Amino acid sequence: MRTLRSSDASALAAAYVRNRAYLSSWEPVRPEEYYTEKWQAADIASRLVAADAGEGLPFGLFAGDALVGRFNLAGIVRGPFQSAGLGYWVDGAYAGRGLASAAVQIIVETAHDVLGLHRIEASTLLHNAGSQRVLWKAGFRQIGMAPRYLKIAGKWQDHNLYQVVLHE
Question: Would the keyword Transferase be found if you checked this record's keyword annotation (predicted)?
């Protein structure tokens, strides 16, 4: 796992194309352009600008040259909040192997040791037991449920809300 680079746009687009059906239940409906190298290059560029500003970190999980997972620490807020949001997915062919758990644990450690954050938040669809296990293993605890929180797979869906407090 490492920070995404501009040169990863092709690998990221290929991963989204490869996982389009697999991710469709867990993500927003995407425009056709989303699956192109051009779209992914622009997205990586904007996330790297945010990283330079201290507002986020985009990570890629790789198996050789193939990108097999994406993890975003986003919306970093400093001041008294010292918090960020976490989003992630792992390639369907690699799911269930503990890769997401290991990657999220690394992100939690980085958020604490390198970024000095106090807390990270994440959310899952109510029925996403796999992602909930990933969060529990990394020390996240459920703090609530948000009705119609995000528009996923074309409809507003309820989400469980989680956080890990890093300075306890």
Answer: yes
Strand partners, 50: none
The band of 168, judged by pLDDT with boundaries at 50, 70 and 90, is confident
Q: What is the CATH number of the domain that holds 19?
A: 3.40.630.30
Structure tokens that stand for 34 in this block: 């989303």
Q: What's the number of domains the chain is made of? A: 1
**pTM, 2 dp:** 0.93
Please say whether the beta carbons of 60 and 70 come within 8 A. yes
Q: What is the mean pLDDT of the chain?
A: 97
Q: Show the domain range for 131.
A: 2-165
Helix (H, G, I), strand (E, B) or coil at 6: helix
Residues counted in the chain: 168
Six-digit token pair at 5?
A: 């680079």
Handedness of CA 147, 26, 112, 49 (dihedral sign): negative
- H helices of the chain, in order, are 9-18, 20-23, 37-52, 99-113, 129-137
Q: Are strands 56-63 and 83-90 parallel, antiparallel or unpaired?
A: unpaired
